[in-house]
User: Fold this.
Amino acid sequence: MREAAAIATEASLLDIRNLQIRLGRTRGAGLSVLDGVSLTVERGETIGIVGESGCGKSVLSLSILGLLPSAMRIGGGEIWYEGRHPLHAMTDRDIRAFRGKEIAMIFQDPMSSLNHGLTIGYQITETLRLHLGYSRKEARERAVWLLRKVGLPRPESLLREYPHQLSGGMRQRVMIAIAVSCNPGLLIADEPTTALDVTIQAQILDLMRQIREEDGTSILLISHDFGVIADMCDRVLVMYAGQIVESGTVDELFERPLHPYTAGLLRSIPTPAKKNSPLYSIEGHVPALHERGAGCRFASRCAHATERCRTEQPELVAYRGGHAARCFLAEAEGGNQHAAV
Amino acid sequence: MPPSEPLVELNGITKSYAKPVSLFKRQTLRAVDGVSLSVRQGETLGLVGESGCGKSTTGQIAARLLAPSGGKLLYRGEDVTGAGAGALRQALRRRIQYVFQDPYTSLNPRFPIGRLLGEPLKINRLCGRKERQLRVGEMLETIGLDVSYAKRYPHELSGGQRQRIGIARALILNPEFVVLDEPVSALDVSVQAQILNLLKKLQREFSLTYLFISHDLNVIHYMSDKVAVMYLGKIVETADVDSLYSRPLHPYTQALMSFVPADDLRAKREKIILKGDLPNPLAIPAGCPFQTRCAHVHERCLSAAPSLKEASPGHSVSCHLYA
Amino acid sequence: MKRMKSYSLVLGASFVSVLFVVMLISLVYTPHPPNEMNIRERLQAPSVRHWLGTDNFGRDILSRVMVGSQTAFEVGAVSVAIGLLGGFLVGTLAGYMGRWVDELLMRATDALLAFPGILLALLLVSISKPSLFQTMLAIGILSIPSFARVIRSGVLQHKEADYVKAARGLGAGHANLIFVQIAPNIASSVVTTAALSFSTAVLIEAALSYLGLGVQPPDPSWGRMLNEAQSYLAKAPWFTLAPGLLITLTVLGFNLLGDGIRDLRDKKS
Assistant:
């Protein structure tokens, strides 16, 4: 599903069209992990992808930079960067020029994404020297500048320290420093604050906002936490079982969710007002890869599922203002309903 | 109406670990530093704090999985801190149980579910095989799983299902007091809701008393009657849940509460973003442990450690601002 | 890559099974009496009557090699049993109790490990009259460190696991924790070590009997046969080939089996 791009003269920063990711190395065969996912990220935008485990959001983020595990491959669709770089078709060698330079990623667990055996200084300067050709001295200076930019104290002595000597929050800041070191146009953040305490989480999100404002970096933020998404993102995509089931602005989604899954998720979040009654929880469980039938993947858990839902696959349809949903019920109502659970 | 005498009481519990820094030097890690808590029968006490604050350690001490370095643990008024071998320990074991955080590592991967659930009964020699099977079947039904699950292995189950097994295992001995250590942190939101509902249902059905440990403020609010906030091994504030969330007194609690979303998740709340990091738990500064991040720090805080004092009925706080 | 892994287990298991069957057969039947000398027929090349030829005393090589397999299996089994038992005691005590007990036991194990295996075996065996039992004992003692290490590391790793804490919280005693809770989780790495130790045992026995210790003449042993054969290498190469090949196949078979089991375990976890 494409946004009405006729007005925009400039190509989107990131344009993913109908991406399919399959499990298995041989052509044609294999289960489908991601099914026809499309999204765009414009310059300066922050797009959120929200979903629970197994929905494919991490796989989506890894596929952009060609970091899929060897068991998976791109089975179809395209990934365009700046309208002219076809990331989906590039060899590993060609994509390397983008990794860490034009597009950078930060991951959930900074302890496993940083090399235990190398100093912080080495890991930051390595990227600078590789991509921007800095000399050792230049790289060191820039590294100090970067560490200061991300709010770390004593940057000079920090260069000599190892990841295990830092706290979780500090490590995540280092990750961010490495990620923005070459001034990327797009920052992909996969659950960047999930492993952190709530007070540190706030600091990290604040830092990301700061970077966004100072450098105009676009952010693709993946999380299962609606609060984080609501805090940071302009537009949100909700994923379920390998597909996008709803997309829209934060306000649209929260005020009037169109898809029953989105509505169900929002209702299950415990908030102070819900204290004295049982929490709403969505019946059933997420279908495993081989359990996905021909019809709507949410049908087995949806209170409003019809025969059509169980046999036919709904398309992702955009309604007024670009708020889209993949649901026959929404189609019937013309996108005017508030999805009930 | 719960009886006024507490079921479980922790008095001045401390737990220290000695960490050898070099051949001759050792540093003491005070994981828990003088914690006093009490829970009444049928109540849920929420224990909230961030990583490294000592809440898990406190929970394990309360469940008698760890021995404290100092202080007393009281059960129904009786001092059970040092209860060593014999009948007392056995009896206590059945009354106090613990649910682990990680549903993936807390179940022996080599045992089928039926065996995992029957293990507590077997170890304590409570009944023969036939009856064990019966009780296991009953328990599976209670937690909403089909009896056929008894033959399956942990790796065949989802995280939510495994956590149910963990809870069931704790309950099969019919305990009175259950310590739940982050029981839903590893689970997705929709599964989390199922587990929380289950926990509440079981509490009503079996008249259980919970010590519920979590870092998630929403979940704590949903489950607890009273809440205690921990920071670096100390309790900094305790109150009943509504008072704590609506009128937090300690600057740390205030910061935490600023992150609790209003019912409208989008509402832009004034978030109090604390500066700095948690200090190294091996080198906690003298005076108030929160001094490095507090916006209201003044001289007294650097030299004298505050103690927990009642600020209003049922609401205590450990801070010089209220001394 | 994946296909290579499955070959290990299949190949290893096949080799070992074939050898085992041959050994069993030799208990009740060999083509010729293994120790029967027939000077007139000495050093004959492989023929229909003697499938692997005859040795310098005219004895049928095939029969001797078959009976030699009994020695190999016996030595392997007994020494692995000794190693396993000793290793289990040391490894469990060290891993479970930790602190000074661990230090003490592990340093002692290291000391044992530091001795060159064959020399130590030689030492032990030459102190008293060389015999099969001495050999098995020596090799068994030598294999204790490998088992001790594997078991200790497994115990250390699982001792702190949540599920063990859970069992402890339910009232399980030390015996239950070690034998019931932890043991099944370290079983497969122990089996792998056992397979590999078996092949080492066979190799050391061959070396010892080559040097004249271990099994005494006229009873056949592969190593001893190699010793006897080496003077006739040019004249009767088949004589060396038979025991040498069998030693190789046995060692290879058990190594592959050990690898295969380890890969199987890795895939499962």
